[in-house]
Write a structure and sequence with these properties.
The complex is a heterodimer of chains A (276) and B (307). Helix content of chain A is 45%, strand content 12%. Chain A is α/β, with parallel strands linked by helices and 276 residues long. In chain A, the strands form 2 sheets. In chain A, strands 1-2-3-7-6 form a 5-stranded parallel β-sheet, with helices on both faces. A two-stranded antiparallel sheet of chain A has the order 4-5. The two termini of chain A are 23 Å apart. Chain B has 2 domains: 157 residues, Thiamin diphosphate (ThDP)-binding fold, Pyr/PP domains (Rossmann fold), CATH 3.40.50.970; 125 residues, Rossmann fold (3-Layer(aba) Sandwich), CATH 3.40.50. Chain B is globular and about 60 Å long. The chains are: A alpha/beta (276), B alpha/beta (307). At the A-B interface, helix 6 and helix 7 of A face helix 4 and helix 6 of B. Chain B: InterPro entries: PDH/Transketolase, THDP-binding, Transketo_C/PFOR_II, Transketolase-like_Pyr-bd, Transketolase_C. Chain B: Its cofactor is thiamine diphosphate. Chain B: It comes from Enterococcus silesiacus. Chain B: Belongs to the transketolase family.
Chain lengths: 276, 307
């Protein structure tokens, strides 16, 4: 299982990166690891050697606070070296909390103010449509992020312009900073909503790399409509300590947490066979 | 070009540029009929995008289009281009360093019957705090065309503030607009800096002062940012300065001039503009009166300074 191993590697380096900093967005970074593994391992037509190739695919991390997971992925894809990865949030860094297209190699769009990335993704997809290109634009958007009205503006635009080369992946990890999404502002059924907004939409297990890959392949076969894949995920996915932690959005671990993180890193290291 | 409305200048210029450059896209937010850009749709085809009533998406989609190499020209009314979608303009366009041109129309009292909800006295103030962008308030059709052409070839984020309807022609198209200002009247005792619809009032004020034996120069300071510091410092060395703007005196032309003056050559100044008030419905002449934007307000300010 090549993609599963890639996911383990992304999870390992995401944890190392955040552990090195000492705190950060563990929950929302971990929940998209499998999706990033499928996108960067199987789907996206991108590579560090072809950064300026206009025919390459584009990726927008609209839920920008999951930047650490994207950075781990970009490192593994060869966009920069391991040392650069540990410059996360250091003074003067080129690897800030939220992705920056000017600072970090491999980042296609600057995001972080929630809702804006999805709009930019519609613009990128529209641009490539105008150019008559067949490349795809992928965007990961958070379930909490969908509180933002701008997302729904962007979805209306995408459906109206028949952006069938736009694939939106909704990270439905059921939590946002202040608690469960159903308690704060119930999103109801994302699949029904997205279908009503003119998208092809269905729900898949966001921890199952095969299921995610199949969903993307299915999304690419559709003509005339954008696709929204709702990913059933767990905030803190793949690291039991964070899955069980209630407030797991931005974590500054206590002593027990620090031990749990070290253990998780050691377990992941064994799985991917790296010497620490 | 004398009889052209500013909206016609916009449409005509974008059309000329877009025919030469396939990378130009024009974005509207359901104001095509107000701006007269429907004609662009016929000529630009798919490169004309009316997003509907969604300014945040208009700015965000423009950013994405810029990422794929297009040059977006974005129109909406000035309050929606700035205060409504400020974070999108700031972040997706400004911070992300995308090349885009925003044209905000119906500034200040020129919103007339749309009233206070649509009357931006703060758009320049908001846009001035976005690092490295350029801001223009245009006063003349030739000037508008020249600035649109410049914004097409230059890089970065542009905000151009203009009326939609006919502007009184001040120029003949042979002027050099690259310095960011044009001197419209010579004078020896002081300076009036103004922009947009206030240039006309400034010229009237200078004429009125002349009849009283007072000689002041009038400068159309249409590039608000980066402001030409040399001309401001030169003016400060000449004598007192009055600024006149169809905008809040906080954060606009007057503030920008005052900052340069205070840091380089302190001299007495007065800022004519909107003070601590919201907009309201009314005809232009009435609104200019209410907000103190008439020639008499400018000449009175100068007389006070010269006392």
């Amino acid at each position: 299982m090549e993609t599963t191993k890639f996911a383990d590697q992304i999870r390992y380096y995401t944890m190392r990166e955040l552990d090195n900093l000492g705190f950060g967005h563990f929950g929302g970074s971990l929940s998209i690891v499998e999706t990033l593994a499928v996108l960067y391992g199987k789907v996206l037509n991108v590579s560090p050697e072809r950064k300026d190739d206009p025919d390459r695919d584009y990726f927008v991390l609209s839920k920008g606070h999951a930047g650490p997971a994207l950075y781990a992925t970009l490192f593994l894809k060869g966009y920069f070296d391991e040392e650069f990865l540990y410059s996360l949030n250091q003074n003067g860094t080129k690897l800030p909390s939220h992705p920056d297209r000017i600072k970090t190699p491999g980042v296609d769009m600057t995001t972080g103010s929630l809702g804006q990335g999805i709009s930019a993704a519609t613009g990128i997809a529209k641009g490539n449509q105008l150019l008559g290109k067949s490349n795809y634009t992928y965007a990961i958007v958070g379930d909490g992020e969908l509180n933002e009205g701008q997302c729904w503006e962007a979805f209306q635009f995408a459906a109206h312009h028949k952006l069938d080369h736009l694939i939106v992946l909704i990270d439905d990890n059921k939590k946002q900073l202040d608690g469960y999404t159903t308690d704060i502002c119930d999103p109801f059924d994302f699949v029904e909503k997205m279908q009503a907004f003119g998208f092809n939409s269905w729900r898949v297990d966001g921890g199952d790399v095969m299921a995610i890959e199949e969903a993307v392949i299915q999304g690419k076969q559709v003509n005339g409509k954008p696709t929204a894949i709702v990913l059933d995920t767990i905030k803190g996915q793949g690291v039991l300590y964070f899955e069980e932690l209630v407030d797991n959005h931005h974590v500054r671990p206590d002593e027990a947490g620090k031990i749990a993180i070290k253990e998780a890193i050691a377990t992941l290291a064994e799985k991917i066979e790296v010497n620490q | 070009m004398k009889d052209l409305e500013m909206r016609q200048v916009y449409t005509k210029t974008i059309l000329e540029l877009a025919q030469k450059d396939q990378k130009i896209v024009a974005l509207e937010a359901d104001l095509a009929s107000s701006m007269g850009t429907s004609k662009l749709k016929e000529q630009l085809g798919k490169r004309y995008i009316n997003v509907g009533i969604m300014e945040a998406e208009e700015m965000g989609a423009a950013a994405g289009l810029a990422v794929t190499g297009f040059i977006p020209f974005i129109h909406t009314f000035a309050p929606f281009a700035t205060r409504r979608s400020f974070d999108q303009v700031f972040l997706s366009l400004g911070y992300a360093q995308n090349h885009a041109v925003i044209v905000g129309t119906d500034p200040g009292v020129t919103a007339e019957m749309n009233g206070g909800t649509h009357m931006p006295f703060e758009d320049i103030a908001l846009m001035r705090v976005i690092p490295r962008n350029q801001i223009y308030e245009v006063s003349d059709p030739y000037q508008f065309k020249a600035i649109l052409e410049y914004a097409h070839t230059a890089q970065g984020l542009f905000y151009i503030r203009t009326i939609r309807k006919q502007a009184k022609s001040l120029y003949n198209g042979k002027e050099d607009f690259s310095k960011g200002y044009c001197k419209l009247k010579e004078g020896t005792q002081g300076t009036i800096f103004s922009s947009g619809i206030m240039v006309e009032e400034a010229l009237q004020a200078a004429d009125d002062l002349e009849k009283k034996g007072i000689s002041v120069q009038v400068i159309d300071l249409f590039r608000i940012k980066p402001m030409n510091e040399d001309i401001v410092i030169k003016a400060a060395k000449l004598g007192p300065i009055v600024t006149a703007e169809n905008h809040n005196v906080i954060g606009g032309l007057g503030s920008a001039v005052a900052e340069i003056v205070a840091e380089n050559h302190p001299v007495k100044m007065k800022r004519v503009g909107v003070k601590e008030q919201f907009g309201q419905v009314g005809k232009m002449a009435y609104l200019k009166e209410v907000y103190g934007l008439k020639a008499v307000d400018i000449s009175k300010a100068m007389l006070d300074l010269l006392k």
